[in-house]
Amino acid sequence: MTTTDSRPAFGGFHHVAVTASDVEASVAWYQRVFGMDRLPPRFPHHGPDAKGYATVLVEPETGMCIGVEHHPDNDGAGADERRCGLDHIAFAMLSRDHLDTWAAWLDSLGIAHSGVVDAGDPVPYSALVFRDPDNVQLELFFMDQG
């Protein structure tokens, strides 16, 4: 419901999409790390200059989706949060303890990460940072809201 004094409502967060230099390698990586299911169809890009497609992955417990994007004119340069565009993707954790479990999981997969960082400025939070095959920064994040 909207009025002239308020913005339209959101229905929730649906997906995030990352551009990959090798879609199949990135899809396999996201499936291995996050246990995501691949939707069977490729999703074509739309618009007058659209040439690429997305492969969509779904996390079965939350329904959260990640689109892994193919753009034929991708130059293969890795992501860099210092340039305009995506800085990072953060996934909410249910507890601080889950970050330790994730750190151990990433270690078992041989994926480099920051280790769990507990910070107090500007507010108390904890984070675990790592990167996908194209250098997109991923963050597992816990902030006690209680």
From TrEMBL:
Domain of life according to the entry: Bacteria
Classification via PROSITE patterns: VOC
PANTHER family for the chain: GLYOXALASE_BLEOMYCIN RESISTANCE PROTEIN_DIOXYGENASE, LYASE, PUTATIVE-RELATED-RELATED
Domain VOC span(s) in chain numbering: 12-143
Originating organism: Actinomycetospora flava
Protein name stated in the entry: VOC family protein
